[in-house]
């Protein structure tokens, strides 16, 4: 059927087509019908038999056999019915194809660009004639002034040619699409083309061509207009090219970030340069080489718009605002760099401020203001302390700017007396750098003669080889001043000051809340309609707007960087060679180690000594703790326990008083004194280890000051655990409850402890008496000394007191009134006048000496009285209560030292180690502390050599990247 339908299109005429179609259908139908029957096989074999004729004959609806004549009639009826059906198919296909083709044409027409704006822009009638003449006159007038960039002309011609090719392509595509749709429709429906479809296609093609020709004529007319007004669109084209470059850079940055993943992003060129400046500034505050590298110094009178110009270049309002008040109190170094996100960050901080969020902008401004006010100390108004920050964002020009405080002519009462001179000196210092670019800001809204900054600039750069003049607030200046005067300023004819370029900018409308985008739009609108651009004006378009200013400053900045950076690298190379030679001559066998490396080495040695505390044996710990504990307790034991109890009288009262005194002592002061003794012992042992290490042959004395400072600070912070006191109180109370010496060995140790303690106390008493009585007879003779009047009196008083003690060896600790009177009268007979207090003062050491000597005799007698003590107890003939007392004290000291030793090893040594680490961590972050504790020629020379080497490497790295960028 399909092959028959395709052949119909080759014949013309309706009757001929129908006849041909019927014959083809009959032939193909019959052939197909009989060929199908021939392919059927009967059961059994597949050969034809007698029944084949029956099966090959036509059949009726119920399977009856139809005679041949009637079969031919049915075939003819079916052919006629198919022909009528084909007729409707052809008609429907023709109508559907036309509708589809018409819809395709409408879609193509909608795809054409909207050119209605041409009707609004293009004048009509007489207005068009006047407009054309005005454009022609304007073109002839500016032809001599403005030279059209041939690239722009070529760009416009290329654009028109591109438009033509685009229209031709779209039209050809539409025609081809229509042909293809028609051919597809004809192929699916038998390739029958209705006359209505051909007519509609021809009509649509003709209409499209007429519209195209009309549009082509309009385009040719517009070509002339584009060429005439190309000056107007020049800045727009430049802006689009710039944005294209910025987008491409952002794409590359983001692509690089995606590839690197968590790897460190390569620093930009301007970031590397800014780090070099920071390193040079930190190298030496008085080092002038840091000032020899280029940077842009923003100078101007107060409130002249310096900060606003810098913010316009940075595309963000990053500085605090004030109405007439001095806000810039310290130099602010701003490093501008390109980046995918508009953010700001201080050099000494990791936080990034999103400059697209007003909340982050407000916090950034507050932080800048806080840092400025913090830098002003001691009643000063301005400071030389530099605040460094980095601003990154899409399309930012790469450079380093320094915003300085504005120059003032009059000081207010709230300013320091040296504010004016300090600002002048600071400004001159930054401008005196032979490679600094001076961005001289002049307020256009005030008289030029009132400016203070121009004279300073002329002094530092008389030839104007590195000065760029910027006239701000031009919108106000145009309203208040003569435009011709402004033109003179911008052409360099009003001042004697010379400059590389003169620029005019608008820094805002006087509103604090205006965004940078609003200010830029206001600036663009102002210069578009400004009287400064009249026909007779001499100002070029590149002299206006902050965008052109930033591009010019950036170009000049990088030009000077390329001219000077290699000289600075060579200078540091020579400095490094000299320092290395000096180091080899002074310290040939040592490696140059800076403070940080030396600090880490000292840190390791200190921590090793803390570990060595655990190597001290238990016996040594207990001996040291026992010695320290008794040294703290001995005075209390003698003065508050032993002497009052021993001098009280009877044996029973002595034991009762001892029990009371010991219990009070254990409940109150003994545990705290024990902990104090343990802590002091820990310090002593640690210092002994440090001293031992100091005497070793490998010791380096450069660490001594640092180690002592760290240990002192850690010990000052350390405190013993509170629960240790409660634990010791329980142990000590339980120990003191035991009043019976268990064996002879402990008794002997107690006696020895008593004798040693009494002898020590006796020696102290003898020394006190010696100072009171003066030297003896032999010493006076051999050393040619004599007694003082007071010493002579003391000798007379002591002589009288010795008589009393010889008379009564068991005398009470105090003198009675009668005894005092007797002594005083006896002295009066000898011509010595003293009062009773004087006698008592002499009696106290005299009686103590007497008592201690008796205590030694009792201890000697008790040495062999242990068995009497065990048999008779307190009823022993020899009084040994003082031995028992010292045994109890000895037992308390023993258990206390054991508990302290365990706590030192298990807890306090580790806590001390932790505190020492904390102190070391704090000192490691304090550069002033390290500089104070690590001193000497070796350290200073190594520090300088390391810094110079580091700066030189950074310079060489920067130069390599700079050369690669070329």
TrEMBL record:
Class of this enzyme: hydrolase
Domain Dynamin-type G: 290-566
Pfam families membership: Dynamin_N (PF00350), OPA1_C (PF19434)
GO BP terms: apoptotic process; endocytosis; intracellular distribution of mitochondria; mitochondrial fission; mitochondrial fusion; peroxisome fission
GO terms for MF: GTP binding; GTPase activity; lipid binding; microtubule binding
EC number assigned by the record: 3.6.5.5
Keyword Transit peptide (UniProt): yes
Catalyzed reactions: GTP + H2O = GDP + phosphate + H(+)
Alphabetized UniProt keyword annotations: Apoptosis, Coiled coil, Disulfide bond, GTP-binding, Hydrolase, Lipid-binding, Membrane, Mitochondrion, Mitochondrion inner membrane, Nucleotide-binding, Transit peptide, Transmembrane, Transmembrane helix
Chain coiled-coil ranges: 205-257, 902-929
The protein, known as: Dynamin-like GTPase OPA1, mitochondrial
Source organism (scientific name): Glossina palpalis gambiensis
Topological category with respect to the lipid bilayer: Single-pass membrane protein
Superkingdom of origin: Eukaryota
GO cellular component, one term: microtubule
Cell compartment(s), UniProt: Mitochondrion inner membrane; Mitochondrion intermembrane space
InterPro entries: Dynamin, Dynamin_GTPase, Dynamin_N, G_DYNAMIN_dom, OPA1_C, P-loop_NTPase
């Amino acid at each position: 059927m399909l092959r028959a339908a395709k052949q119909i299109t080759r014949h013309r005429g309706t009757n001929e087509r129908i006849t041909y179609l019927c014959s083809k259908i009959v032939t193909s139908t019959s052939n197909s019908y009989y060929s199908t029957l021939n392919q059927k096989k009967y059961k059994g074999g597949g050969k034809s038999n007698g029944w084949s004729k029956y099966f090959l004959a036509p059949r009726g609806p119920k399977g009856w056999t139809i005679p041949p004549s009637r079969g031919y009639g049915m075939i003819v009826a079916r052919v006629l019915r198919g022909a009528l059906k084909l007729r409707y198919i052809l008609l429907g296909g023709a109508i559907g194809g036309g509708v589809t083709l018409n819809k395709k044409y409408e879609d193509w027409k909608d795809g054409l660009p909207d050119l209605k704006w041409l009707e609004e822009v293009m004048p009509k009638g007489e207005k068009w004639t006047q407009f054309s003449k005005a454009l022609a006159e304007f073109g002839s007038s500016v032809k001599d002034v403005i030279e059209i960039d041939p690239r722009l002309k070529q760009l416009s011609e290329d654009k028109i040619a591109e438009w033509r090719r685009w229209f031709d392509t779209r039209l050809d595509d539409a025609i081809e699409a229509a042909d293809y749709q028609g051919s597809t429709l004809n192929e699916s429906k038998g390739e029958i083309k209705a006359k209505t479809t051909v007519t509609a296609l021809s009509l649509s093609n003709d209409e499209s061509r007429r519209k195209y020709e009309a549009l082509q004529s309009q385009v040719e007319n517009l070509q002339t207009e584009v060429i005439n007004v190309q000056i107007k669109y020049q800045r727009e084209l430049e802006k689009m090219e710039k944005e294209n470059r910025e987008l491409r850079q952002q794409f590359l940055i983001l692509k690089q970030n995606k590839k690197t993943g968590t790897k460190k992003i390569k620093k930009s060129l301007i970031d590397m340069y800014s780090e070099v400046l920071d390193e040079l500034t930190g190298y030496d505050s008085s080092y002038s080489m840091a000032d020899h590298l280029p940077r842009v110094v923003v100078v101007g009178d107060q409130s002249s718009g310096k900060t606003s110009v810098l913010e316009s270049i940075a595309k963000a309002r990053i500085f605090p605002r004030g109405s007439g008040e001095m806000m810039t109190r310290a130099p602010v170094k701003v490093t501008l760099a390109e980046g995918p996100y508009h953010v700001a960050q201080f050099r000494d901080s990791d936080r990034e401020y999103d400059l697209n969020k007003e909340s982050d902008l407000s916090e950034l401004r507050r932080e800048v203001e806080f840092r400025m006010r913090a830098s002003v100390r001691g009643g000063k108004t301005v400071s030389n302390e530099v605040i460094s920050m980095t601003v990154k964002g899409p399309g930012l020009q790469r450079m380093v700017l320094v915003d300085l405080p504005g120059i003032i002519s009059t000081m207010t009462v709230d300013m320091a007396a040296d504010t004016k001179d300090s600002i002048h000196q600071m400004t001159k210092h930054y401008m005196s750098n032979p490679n600094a670019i001076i961005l001289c800001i002049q307020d256009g809204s005030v008289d030029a003669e009132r400016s203070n900054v121009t004279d300073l600039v002329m002094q530092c750069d008389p030839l104007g080889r590195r000065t760029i003049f910027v006239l701000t607030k031009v919108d106000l200046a145009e309203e208040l001043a003569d435009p011709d005067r402004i033109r003179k300023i911008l052409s360099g004819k009003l001042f004697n000051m010379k400059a590389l370029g003169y620029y005019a900018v608008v820094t805002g409308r006087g509103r604090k809340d205006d965004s940078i985008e609003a200010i830029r739009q206001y600036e663009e609108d102002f210069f578009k309609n400004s009287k400064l651009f009249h026909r007779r004006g001499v100002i070029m378009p590149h002299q206006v707007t902050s965008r052109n200013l930033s591009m010019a400053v950036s170009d000049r900045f990088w030009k000077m960087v390329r001219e000077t950076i290699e000289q600075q690298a060579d200078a540091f190379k020579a400095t490094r060679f000299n320092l290395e030679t000096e180091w080899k001559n002074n310290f040939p066998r040592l490696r140059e180690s800076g403070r940080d490396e030396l600090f880490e080495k000292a840190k390791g040695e200190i921590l090793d000594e803390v570990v060595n505390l655990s190597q001290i044996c238990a016996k040594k710990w207990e001996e040291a703790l026992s010695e320290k504990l008794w040294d703290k307790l001995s005075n209390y034991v003698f003065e508050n326990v032993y002497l009052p109890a021993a001098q009280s009288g009877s044996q029973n009262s002595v034991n009762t008083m001892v029990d009371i005194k010991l219990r009070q002592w254990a409940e109150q002061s003994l545990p705290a004194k024990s902990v104090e003794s343990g802590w002091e012992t820990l310090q002593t042992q640690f210092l002994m280890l440090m001293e031992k290490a100091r005497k070793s042959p490998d010791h380096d004395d450069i660490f001594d000051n640092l180690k002592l400072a760290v240990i002192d600070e850690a010990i000052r912070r350390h405190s013993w655990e509170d629960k240790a006191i409660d634990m010791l109180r329980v142990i000590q109370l339980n120990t003191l409850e035991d009043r019976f010496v268990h064996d002879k060995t402990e008794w002997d140790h107690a006696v020895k402890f008593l004798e040693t303690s009494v002898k020590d106390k006796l020696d102290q008493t003898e020394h006190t008496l010696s100072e009171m009585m003066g030297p003896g007879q032999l010493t006076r003779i051999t050393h040619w000394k004599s007694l003082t009047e007071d010493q002579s009196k003391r000798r007379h008083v002591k002589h009288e007191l010795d008589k009393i003690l010889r008379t009564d060896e068991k005398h009470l600790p105090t003198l009675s009134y009668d005894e005092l009177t007797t002594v005083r009268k006896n002295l009066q007979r000898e011509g010595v006048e003293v009062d009773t207090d004087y006698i008592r003062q002499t009696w106290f050491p005299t009686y103590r000496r007497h008592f201690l000597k008796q205590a030694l005799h009792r201890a000697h007698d008790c040495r062999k009285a242990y068995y009497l003590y065990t048999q008779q107890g307190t009823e022993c003939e020899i009084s040994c209560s003082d031995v028992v007392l010292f045994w109890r004290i000895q037992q308390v000291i023993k258990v206390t030292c054991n508990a302290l030793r365990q706590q030192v090893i298990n807890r306090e040594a580790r806590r001390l180690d932790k505190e020492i680490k904390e102190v070391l961590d704090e000192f490691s972050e304090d550069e002033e502390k390290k500089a104070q504790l690590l001193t000497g020629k070796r350290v200073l020379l190594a520090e300088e050599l390391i810094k110079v080497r580091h700066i030189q490497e950074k310079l060489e790295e920067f130069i390599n990247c700079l050369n690669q960028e070329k």
